[in-house]
Amino acid sequence: MKRFKTVDEFIDGCESWHEELKRLREILLSTELEETVKWGAPCYTYQGKNLVGIGAFKSYFGLWFFQGGLLSDPEGVLINAQDGKTKAMRQWRFNSKKEIKSRTIKAYVKEGIRLQIEGHEIKPERGKPLTVPPELKQALARNKTASIAFEGLSQGKQREYADYITDAKRDATKASRIEKIVPMIANGQGLNDKYR
């Protein structure tokens, strides 16, 4: 996925949904939120904390509420795109411009701001044991430099690599991912260092 430096680049770089994304942006900019770009996509913050982001895919575009799991969701529009994995983030998917209701979006943003001011937050689980998948264990066993470097990484970076392999569904995907990451590990890099 391409990472953009500005919101305009993001909107122009999307294959479709240009007018719809501009409309979502316009609505969010009419609130108290500040616009920025994080992870190459538009992100809107309140007092420096992420509140909502904009995204687009082939079949839909939408909003991502970082603490959406706390929102009351009176319209029943929020979904957990990674059920069982994501605790806080929720998506609001749209399929057409006519589905965009400014007043409703602003109400969700207002509730999100209120919850943030009150200090409500779903925090990620800490202390969960690290499980290195067997495919990664085998690859590290064959590369002493990578194995030593892996042990020197923080547990968070080790977990990113482990999850990256575990999340692959097909064996071929796991193999290609391992081929990609072993040199990164050997160099002491974290999987997502270039985005930090």
TrEMBL record:
<feature type="domain" description="YdhG-like">
    <location>
        <begin position="17"/>
        <end position="111"/>
    </location>
</feature>
<protein>
    <recommendedName>
        <fullName>YdhG-like domain-containing protein</fullName>
    </recommendedName>
</protein>
<dbReference type="Pfam" id="PF13376">
    <property type="entry name" value="OmdA"/>
</dbReference>
<dbReference type="Pfam" id="PF08818">
    <property type="entry name" value="DUF1801"/>
</dbReference>
<dbReference type="InterPro" id="IPR016786">
    <property type="entry name" value="YdeI_bac"/>
</dbReference>
<dbReference type="InterPro" id="IPR014922">
    <property type="entry name" value="YdhG-like"/>
</dbReference>
